[in-house]
Design brief:
Layout: H1 14-39, H2 44-70, H3 84-89, H4 102-129, H5 136-160
Helix pairs in contact: 1-2, 1-4, 2-5, 4-5
Amino acid sequence: MTTIPTSATPRLLPEELLALAGDHEHAELERYRDLAFRFLAFSSATSRLMATLGIECEMRLSGLARAARRLSLNLGLDTPLANAAARLAAPAATAPGLIGSLAMARGALSQAMTDAAASQRLYVRLGELGAGCSLGHEFVAIARHKQAELAILREHCLVRGGQAAGSPPRLTGMAPGP
């Protein structure tokens, strides 16, 4: 579904759009890093996937920084630690501690898919809002990346579902394993 901007749609400046995207992507990066750590002992494959998705966030942040430079804006998007102090002071959005059970793993992956879907919707909306200032295509491309990210998470849940170390994949649940 596409929303057509109207006179009631808030007008955001390009730097505001980039700041929103940058802050969101920083939060996504931290979330995936946190999940990579939390899954480390339970499922190394899931931990590696989360780390890889975090690296994708870093690449998107680099793209946003390039877009800011192209528009001669200095938003500090080059440094992933730009707002580190503020993020450290804020309480963690995810439950602390390592994943230690199948129920915790399912809950964390379910939340990861929910967050990925919300992120994709945000970038679709940013693409609509940025259409008039040459940023629309940047955000639409990120929305496509986020859609692929969601598909990868869903596929990972299906492939890893019920699979113990060394056993063939099944299509239900999820169990620890490499």
